Amino acid sequence: MKITFNTFKYIYIFLPIYLIILGCDRAEKDTELFFIQGNVSYKKGNFEEAIKFYSEAIEKMPKFADAYNNRGRVKLELDNLEGAIQDFEKAVSIDDKFYMAKFNLAEAYSNTDMLDESLTLLKQISNQYKDSSFYFITLSNVFIQKNNFSEANSNLAVALKLNPKNDRGYTNLGYIQYSDKKYDAAKQNFEKAISINPKQHFAINNLSLIYAEKEEYIKALEIVDKALEINKNEIYQNNKAYYLLNLGKLEEGKNLLDIILEKNQKSAWAFRNLGIYYYKNKNFAKANENFLKSDKIDPSVELLNYYLGLIQQSLGYKSKACEYWSIGKKLNEAKSIEMLTEICK
Fold this sequence. Notes:
The protein has a domain at about 1-95: Serine Threonine Protein Phosphatase 5, Tetratricopeptide repeat, CATH 1.25.40.10. About 70% of the residues lie in helices and about 0% in strands. It has helices at about 25-45, 45-60, 65-75, 80-95, 100-110, 115-125, 135-145, 150-160, 165-180, 185-195, 200-215, 215-230, 235-245, 250-265, 270-280, 285-295, 305-315, 320-330, 335-345.
């Protein structure tokens, strides 16, 4: 299972500000036309077409910061984070006072390991965005990524004071509470986010995890399917696979995992879930192989040490099993703690 919080969903696009054409030559008029066409295509959801028009505008006016900013935003819609960052960086390099582009760049950086760079940019534009609820949500995203939940909570408090109906704020607040294993409080905030925005798929996915914690996998599956109807997120797919495995629908779960791993061979959660599939089929060698792949990619994957311990226990290596569960205990995994208490007395 994997929980999510909101990322780069509040980036503003420069719409629809038009260039003044009085006294412009033909090239400048063409540039304006391409820019406007790009804006119209973006609003209609024709993203590839929008990129084409913005690129035409940039070709005719290489210092057109607004076109770079808007093209970067469209690239985010196409999940091209690296390309978006390049465009936002270009926009800021052209105009250091282009605060909207700085905000977009900070938001994009927050989805990479450039968290300090994101914070630096956010501090630079703090005066311009001091009344923006979304600005403080972005700050909370960065601090969540840095595991600084205290600062994240402080910024969420400001965000929700500025806008008590900010569904993203309640989603992030629930994320922190879930991470602290305050499941009842987290559930209330996820439900509040969904009541404000029924398409808040981050909150919907996270709500499914609350039911999974209670081992109510039928309900969890029903809820995560709603999130997947809105967004085919790999995280949600992994969670669905986990629920299917726990409902005994092993082949259906494995089919979904095969699809995930065909696209992403670095999905630690998919390898963990594939390990669970083989464990439930009593193929302990294949299970262990996949758990170790997951561990190599990301040792912090939830319940990984619990399952690694189960494999060792199944093979008759009690002391090794207890070592894994001890690691799980340090990660505050209830199942590992339970096994330590029952088996490793």
